Amino acid sequence: MPRSYLLAKQIPPMWQYVPRRQFLPLSTPTPRSHMTALLLAAGRRSKVLVLVLAILAAGGLASQAGKLEGVVDNDPVASLPSGSESRDVAQRPVADPTERDVPAVVVVARDGGLRDGDLDALRDVVADLRRQPPGLVDTRALREPEQAPGGAAAVLAVPITDNGDEEAFNETVETLRDRLAPLRERDGLDVQVTGGAAFSADLSAVFDGLDGRLLAITGSLVLLLLILIYRSPIFWLVPFVTVIFAEGASRGAGALLGEAGLTVTGQSSGILSVLVFGAATDYALLLVARYREELRAHDDVHDAMRAALRGAAPAILASGGTVVVGLLTLLLADVGSTRAIGPLGAAGVALAMVLSLTLLPASLAVVGRRAFWPFIPRPGEEVAARRSVWERLGDRIARRPRRAWVGATAVLVVLAAGTLGLDTTLTQQDQFTSTVEAVEGQKLLSESFPPGLTAPADVVLGDPGRAEAVQAALGRADDLVASARPTGDPNRLSVVLARDPYGEAAVAAVPELRRVVRSADPQALVGGATAEAYDLRDAAERDNLVVPPIALLVVALVLVVLLRSIAASLLLLATVVVSFLASLGVATVAWDVLFGFPAADPTLPLLAFVFLVALGVDYNIFLASRAREEAERIGTRRGVLAALAVTGGVITAAGVVLAGTFSVLAVLPLVLLTQIGTVVAFGVLLDATLVRSVLVPALIHDLGRRVWWPSRLARQDGESG
Predict the structure, then answer these.
(1) How far is CA 524 from each of CA 458, 462, 466, 484, 718, rounded to the nearest angstrom?
(2) What Å distances lie between residue 509 and 430, 493, 500, 625, CA to CA?
(3) Which residues pair with 485 in a beta bridge?
């Protein structure tokens, strides 16, 4: 018979050793000076001062939230790493200002061929644009329409000046589309606008109102979950107000960071909202759970709140600190949009943590215990003696801990097998989950013209005297290039690709295109939209390899400091990594089978890794820190079972809330946001259930006191014998 089973039979149920009122989430001790400051929120007089100061500080930051959309920059060039070839090309000065124009390509086509009236109507549009150019249309470079061989389609390239004003640029594209109304009214004529300008406008349109929709959906979800968790018609308002203040303050902080030079994209702004909503709600759940229990032990609400802060604040600080440190490792990323999420998310989580330890406890102390109506916790009130599901689960783990952790690990490994099918080659034309005109126009154009006409590659010559040699070399690469011509700048060539410039085949061929160009001019550079997509992917692949090990090292050091154990820190980190791989494996299959996505975004693996490692360790900290505390009194094996019973309900509720907030991203019309939402939501649930409820307790129970090596507990814990 297994030794673990005999041991379990010899130990009476752990709830006989630990009073139920003490089954509360604790963590490592907080320095006395810091705790004294935190306890001001529970003071009879100081609570109002803390409440007012917290509202003023959070409100001051929130007053800047409206500026966040103004600092958002969705230009892919801004996300390129400094020193990348395509970024260098984009930033090189041009001799002809029209070379900076971005084309909006109007495509008209008709089954059976265009009619004379169709071409006349298109020419009328050109004349109208010259008479009254909308917005930033550059009439200096506006040419007559070009008809395809066979006469089935025609194109009109409308140059739009990119002056850095994204709003004016996008409005120009939309105005152009409106001016095409006479063409669209012609029966049977298919009219689409594509090209770089159209892709930019359609991408920006996705983000228009995105923050408002996210705020409404996420706020409604959190509100519903709080009502269900607390079953009170009024109490939900207290934590919900704190969450709203945290979200507003974080957006204000994001706006200030953007004004200071941080690259803030629409995607990072959306991620910030759901991250702060989830984190702030989680911290509120942890503090309220402790406060509710302390109200049953204290007559005075201020004493109860002080006790709650002493117990819950260290856990919240440890949790928030770990997430902040994990997110800040994204500063090491080369991709600008990924790098920006680091300080943006870290600032948001830090604000959520601070307000959860100031505004929330002060508010709770002000409203008192009656806010819990109709389930008001009374002094001396006993919790029902019924054993919880977590206690029963602990009993089952104690009987066969090795079988439990081996089985849980096997499940995770099987789920992780899905990562073998992960493909991170998502391209610009596949980034939308809904139909957009720019993509449809590109498909229509490709039926009659060289696909690369909408986004020519830009070649900057190292030696202008080699221009003809470069053109000749490109002419021989007819599988890559449809045509190459000089521009108004003697140092540049415009190269029309033979492949869809937004498709995978063209992006993958960029190294070969650069090789061909440099065979004639070794100092030449190749840029343009296709080259930018390749360089962005190359930087993302570098980030996926370099940043995760550093993130693991940083989080491991934080865990060692918190738990004072190398063995426990490495064990927890290993479980989170396996959980991440399992989550990514399941998500990879879901994206293919359920969503029909052609591939994953190149930046996704790193973002998913950092979010899931930081948030997964977050929950393990609550369990392991409590297990360590109990180990000093009743031994490691009984202590981890007590910790499981203590943290089970509140952490599972926190996991459901965080998963719910991230799942909101899955309803948005961008593939990357949908993928982040699904993988993080599933991963958080997996961490809060299988990993934290079975795998970690079983491992700690099986290892016993050795899990605390090299601390004193590894030699002697509170377990007799």
Answers:
(1) 10, 5, 10, 14, 71
(2) 18, 18, 11, 52
(3) 494
Give the whole-angstrom CA distance, residue 120 versus residue 118. Answer: 5
Q: Each residue of 398-412: pLDDT tens digit?
A: 999 999 999 999 999
**Tokens encoding 65:** 């939230």
| Rounded-to-integer distance, Cα 624 and Cα 562, Å | 10
* Percent of the chain whose pLDDT exceeds 70: 93
The average confidence (pLDDT) of the chain is 85
Average the pLDDT over 240-260 and give the result: 92
* 3-state SS, residue 159: strand
Enter the DSSP assignment of 163: -
CB atoms within 10 A of CB 419: 18
Contact 193, 636 (CB under 8 A): no
All structural domains of the chain, each given as residue ranges with its CATH number in brackets, are: 3-73+209-421+536-714 (1.20.1640.10), 86-206 (3.30.70.1150), 436-534 (3.30.70)
Positive or negative, the Cα torsion across 357, 363, 369, 371? negative
pLDDT of residue 22: 39
Q: Which of 14-18, 257-261, 303-307 has the lowest mean pLDDT?
A: 14-18
User: DSSP labels for 234-283?
Assistant: TTTHHHHHHHHHHHHHHHHHHHHHHHTT--B-HHHHHHHHHHHHHHHHHH
Contact 506, 500 (CB under 8 A): yes
* Residue pair 481/505 in contact by the 8 Å Cβ criterion: no
DSSP 72: B
Max CA separation in the chain (angstroms): 98
- Order of strands, sheet of 153-160, starting from the edge strand that comes earlier in the sequence: 146-147, 153-160, 102-109, 190-194
Pairing, β 457-460 against β 492-497: antiparallel
Tokens of 58: 């959070």
| Helix, strand or coil, per DSSP, at residue 721 | coil
Give the integer Cα–Cα distance in Å for 84 and 74.
Answer: 18
Q: Give the gyration radius of the chain's Cα atoms.
A: 30
Average of per-residue pLDDT across 241-251: 93
H or E element, residue 64: none
- Over 90: is that where the pLDDT of 135 sits? no
CA atoms within 13 A on the CB side of 215: 14
Q: What is the pLDDT of residue 386?
A: 54
d(CA 170, CA 202): 8
Separation of alpha carbons 720 and 152, rounded Å:
88
pTM of the model: 0.84
Find the helix or strand (DSSP H, E) in which 573 lies: helix 566-590
Report pLDDT digits (tens) over 452-496.
Answer: 998 999 999 999 999 999 999 999 998 999 999 998 788 899 999
N residues, the chain? 721
HEC secondary structure over 583-643: HHHHHHHHHHHHHCCCCCCCCHHHHHHHHHHHHHHHHHHHHHHHHHHHHHHHCHHHHHHHH
